[in-house]
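Re: weekly structure request thread

Next one in the queue (256 aa):
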Amino acid sequence: MSPFKALRVFILLFILLMVAGGVYLDRARTTDWNDPLWVVVYPINGDGSNESKKFIENLDEERFDPVEDFFKREAEKYNLGISLPVKIFLAPELQSIPPEPPEHGSILSTIWWSLEMRYWIYSNNSYDKPADIKIFLQYFDKEDNEMVPDSLGIQNGLYAVVNGFASKDMNAKNNVVLAHELLHTVGASDKYDMNTVQPIYPIGYAEPQRSPVLPQRYAEIMAGRIPLTQDKAKMPRGLKTVVVGELTANEIRWIE
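Done, posted below.
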């Protein structure tokens, strides 16, 4: 190995070590559930459209009340002992688009993107109060976009990039995605098959003991869909038909 390459590897390992230490401390702080998590939502015009622009201009914190209510309701089921686990704040609109993650990238390119993302977050803070978790919510015009890019939630950094439609009638479904990605940031794992997107039995079922087991009535939040048959599931209309399953509750330290 050349001296230059060895130096690059050493610097990268040093950065990763520092990041790992920060991740451990963040993990402990955000999952002790002694105080509400302060979640700041940063709206972004994801497609540069006038529709997304107007939607963001009329955005207010009340749009995210169902997310707060969801966490409050589900936490009560597990006797968490805190009246409001999550408090959401709305930041001014960001004018910058976050770096796109690499598609099927190497470990090195993924690490590089992670560092780029951290620098972008540091450089694009439009909110003057501290945040435990940052949600970058990109809006897209529903008329011009049949689908939006995949959303992601990152525990190693306590942030999420959520992609949704700039439409009032999609607000409830946008909130489902937001809650899902938020839970990723505090340690929850996906509970659906990556190839078929079908919820995995039993961990991805809201009522695994239900008889007959199908169709289900609710969606487990980290499975994201309500199982109807062995190969069919539907997206919940909103968080009223979504629950936090026991494994998810364990992962985020609501139960031991």
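Residues 108 and 187 are 23 Å apart (CA to CA). The two ends are 46 Å apart (CA to CA).
Next request, please.
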